[in-house]
Structures are given as C-alpha cells and as structure tokens.
Amino acid sequence: MLAIEGLNQYYGGSHILRDLSFEVPSGKVTTLLGRNGVGKTTLLKTLMGLIPAATGVVSFERKDITHAKPYLRARAGIGYVPQGREIFPRLTVEENLLMGARKVPARIFEMLPVLKSMLGRRGGDLSGGQQQQLAIGRALAMRPRLLILDEPTEGIQPSIIKDIERVIRALAASDEMSSLLVEQYYDFAQSLADQYLVMERGEIIARGAGADMERDGVRKLLAV
To answer: Distance between CA atoms of 102 and 100, rounded to whole angstroms?
Structure first.
C-alpha cells in the first residue's frame, strides 16, 4: 500500500529522518511508536507532501508520489488526521465533514454517532475528544484507502479513546483500508497493531508483528 525507501529529511543542519525504509501493507494497521522529538510528525508531514523529502522515494500503490502535491496524495486515497486535529473552528460539524466529500457517507454517523447529533454546532464549540472524532470523520468522508493518524489519543478522555479504537478496529477488520498510526500510548497501539515500528533519533530501531510487542520489549524501548 505504502512504501518508503531511503527517506532523509533535514532542518537546517539537523538530520531529522535518517535513511528510513519500511512498508505499510494493505488492510493492516501499522503503528509507529516513539518518544517526543524523534521525528514521527516530521515523517508524516513528509509522507503527505507538506514537507518536501530531501532524498528517498515514497510510493503509494506502487506509484511514485515523492514529489506529488498534498492535494494529489489526498485525491489518490490517503487520508490524514494531523496532530492537534486542525478542524475549522468557525465552521459547523457538517461543513467540516463536507471538506472531505460532497456528501457525508451515512457510515460516518454509524461509526461516530456523536457527530450526527452535532451537525449544526461549530467545530470550535466541541470538546477535545469530539473534535478528534470530527477530524477522523472528515478524513474518512473521502473514503481513503490509507488513513494516517498522528497521536489521535493525545489529551483525549478514556471513553473517547475507546470509541476511536473501535472505529479503527472495525475498518481494519473489514479490509476497507490500511492505517498508519503514530502513537505514544503503548496499550492503545498494541491493541490495534498488526505490525509495529519504533523510532529513535530519526531511525527505525525495532520492527515486528504487533502480537510480539510484549515479547520484543517495545514498552521498555519507549521508557528509556
């Protein structure tokens, strides 16, 4: 679904991403874990074309998108839920959802029923957890084949985290799309991961099957 080969990124004289190579398989959830400041968000922004890649190749469904504009990546089928949600606070919930589609698919309200009851409310009036659900719903409205989520549990109450977990699990079980989930919350990541990656100082230092995360000592890697 998504393949990254030899990806490098720099900020000034700092080498942020160091020769990254990995794949996100079809119909699976890939979790990318790492502490703050290791380059996770920079990686996602590079994958979405918000930051140009210094070197390396990014391929989506075997097509080179390394230099494609962000809107072309979205049009190709990549949905993105950024860190901090970045909804439009002055627009209503319905207007936010329509940024991702001409018509909101009914299934969005089946998966995230709270949104249906709030269609006329402004995005900025919602709680943090509700805004996160709105950001996910907006991305899903375009029916992506790959959904990229950056820290979806950050600052969210446990009940909403369970709702988000349920949505990602349902989509993965249906084989409708793949997910690349960047997360610091170990238990959430482990519960969803088909495969995991761990980043440290811009490099992938560990990878494996999600079922092996405990055996591989991933929790300890994040605590160091």
So the answer is: 7
**What pTM did the predictor assign?**
0.90
* N residues, the chain: 224
User: How would residue 208 be classed by pLDDT, with cut points 50, 70 and 90?
Assistant: very high
**Rg from Cα positions in the chain:** 17
Quick check: 43 and 8 in contact, CB under 8 A? Answer: no
Q: How many domains does the chain have?
A: 1
pLDDT(197) > 70:
yes
Is the pLDDT score of 67 beyond 70? yes
CATH number of the domain residue 202 falls in: 3.40.50.300
Find the distance separating the first CA and the last CA of the chain, reported in whole Å: 32
**Domain boundaries, position 164:** 2-223
Q: Measured between alpha carbons, how far is 141 from 107 in angstroms, rounded to an integer?
A: 9
